[in-house]
Amino acid sequence: MKLQSGARVAVAGAGALGSAVTLRLARLGFQVTAFDPSLGHVNASSVAAGMLAPVSEALFDPPSRDHLDVMRRARNLWPDFAAALGVRLVRSGVRIEGAEGWRREVAVRLDALGAPAGAFIDEDWRIDARQTLEALHEAARNAGATFQSAAVRAFEPGLATLADGRREAFEALVLATGPGVRGGDLAPETRVLTPIKGQILRLSMQGDDEAPVVRGEGVYLAPGGAALAIGATMEHGRDDLAPDRAATKALRAAAAALRPDLDLDQAEVEVGVRVTTPDGLPLVGWSQAPGVLIAVGARRNGWLFAPLVADLVGAYLTGDNLGQDAAAMDARRFEKPKT
Ligand SMILES: Cc1cc2nc3c(=O)[nH]c(=O)nc-3n(C[C@H](O)[C@H](O)[C@H](O)COP(=O)(O)OP(=O)(O)OC[C@H]3O[C@@H](n4cnc5c(N)ncnc54)[C@H](O)[C@@H]3O)c2cc1C
């Protein structure tokens, strides 16, 4: 399916992926409306640490180990993407800290990845997630997109049905609902998605915003604005947003081992739910459901992947060249072959 410029496109979800897609499509000349029932409230995209960290993710998140090249290509889109939005890209890297035995283990894993060995990773960057989300919304509005506070409940080619019963004419729907749509609703491909609850601690402190992220065993410390982000739990199968102190115990202990001076009892807990596919890469592309294009399942890397996913969605809708990463993220790659 390919649409003419000026066609009406609905985007369900205004997190990192939906917002980047909305901006891209508005700039391509589509009439875009983004729907989200929680506009301005917390989603995974607004609690995220904002790291754009291909090497650290390949090192510390096993499903991402095989995706270093695609993650690096996604990161390489960020300098232009951030500049166009007017958001600051912090390129101060990642410092590995911790017990000697663990650092040796990390060095071996870096070597296996073919990444430069050493206690410093200079190619991982970061942004301020919340500011970037606001900048995306503003840029998308300036490009002609509109945002509505409503959930999309159903879609058939030509018509989106909203949760409040309204029906609006759209030629295509982009599903960027994070963990909000699963189990086959709106698109059968969402059956492969599973949630991973993440709790992150934010400790108010004036630090050096240009300092590197510190990665220790079981924890990262990411400077930013007026707070240090200490993350994050990986609670597989959970999709509730309730802070849960028991689940943050190991995280607090890992942070205290690195920085005994931090008063972690003063930290605020923020909760977001990521959603993952079995191989850790998002689903991007046309669904079996007519007129539905999927952009979900970015696991721990929704910010890293946002510009790449937005470019891909734009290319699917215009019929442009999809580029080399489309196949790895194909929305239908988990379908069983027909016998
Ligand atoms: C603690 C934590 C730390 C993280 N740190 C990083 C990091 O450092 N770097 C990184 O790249 N990633 C990070 N991530 C992962 C990243 O946040 C996610 O991959 C990313 O936010 C996914 O974006 P999304 O737009 O797909 O989903 P979301 O941010 O979940 O947004 C989905 C939106 O869809 C809306 N929605 C749901 N159902 C409907 C519907 N039916 N109709 C309309 N709208 C709907 C929801 O209200 C929501 O706003 C982190 C995640 C967590 C939880």
Structural account:
- The protein has 339 residues and is an alpha/beta fold.
- It has a domain of 206 residues: 3-Layer(bba) Sandwich (FAD/NAD(P)-binding domain).
- 29% of the residues lie in helices and 25% in strands.
- The chain is built from ten helices and 19 strands.
- It is globular, with a radius of gyration of 20 Å.
- Flavin-adenine dinucleotide (FAD) binds next to helix 1, helix 2, strand 12, strand 17 and helix 9.
Key descriptive features of the protein:
19 strands, single chain, FAD/NAD(P)-binding domain, binds flavin-adenine dinucleotide
Describe the protein's topology.
Blueprint: E1 8-12, H1 16-27, E2 31-35, H2 44-47, E3 51-52, H3 54-60, H4 68-76, H5 78-85, E4 94-96, H6 100-113, E5 120-121, E6 125-126, H7 129-142, E7 146-148, E8 152-156, E9 158-162, E10 167-170, E11 172-175, E12 194-204, E13 213-216, E14 219-222, E15 227-231, E16 235-236, H8 249-258, E17 268-276, E18 283-286, E19 292-296, H9 302-318, H10 326-329
Parallel strand pairs: 1-2, 1-11, 2-7, 4-13, 11-19
Antiparallel strand pairs: 3-6, 4-5, 8-9, 9-10, 12-15, 12-16, 12-17, 13-14, 14-15, 18-19
Helix pairs in contact: 1-7, 1-9, 3-4, 4-9
The structure holds flavin-adenine dinucleotide.
